[in-house]
Write a structure and sequence with these properties.
With 130 residues, the protein is mostly beta strands. Helices cover 8% and strands 49% of the residues. Strands 2, 4, 5, 6, 9, 10 and 11 form a 7-stranded mixed beta sheet that branches. A 4-stranded antiparallel beta sheet has the order 1-3-8-7, with no helix packed on it.
Length: 130
């Protein structure tokens, strides 16, 4: 059974940093894309970042490029999202997702944004104050 458990959300000030973690179990990473999307109240789902297990290529939404970094630790099956220089518009619930298939990182993020991922965690709230 695939399980994804996010942690690390919370309250940060504008310009601050947070690191989200997603502990995964129940599947092998080798053929998956892993990523993060966020959703704020009243707004559409936005794919934030993804990473391909097979070649570690990454892709980011323009809104977070240069500020967020996605990474993974194969040894403990944890996916990370390092978020720096946070802005109030980053406030949202952040979800960790998996996607199986042969995609480029850019394609995978588009699929994640459309909601066609395979599995999702319960989400973690990130709130950035101005």
């Amino acid at each position: 059974q695939v399980q994804l458990v996010e942690s690390g959300g919370g309250l940060a000030q504008s310009g601050g940093s947070l690191r989200l973690s997603c502990t995964t179990s129940g599947f092998q990473w080798g053929y998956h894309a892993l990523g993060w999307y966020r959703q704020a109240p009243g707004k559409e789902r936005e794919g934030v970042a993804c990473i391909l297990s097979r070649d570690l290529s990454t892709h980011y939404a323009d809104s977070v490029k240069g500020r967020f970094t996605i990474s993974k630790n194969d040894a403990n099956s944890v996916l990370y999202l390092q978020m720096n220089n946070l802005k109030p518009e980053d406030t949202a619930v952040y979800y960790c997702v998996t996607l199986r298939g042969h995609f480029t990182a850019s394609q995978a993020l588009g699929v994640i944004s459309s909601g066609l991922y395979d599995h999702r965690g319960q989400g973690t709230q990130v709130t950035v104050s101005s």
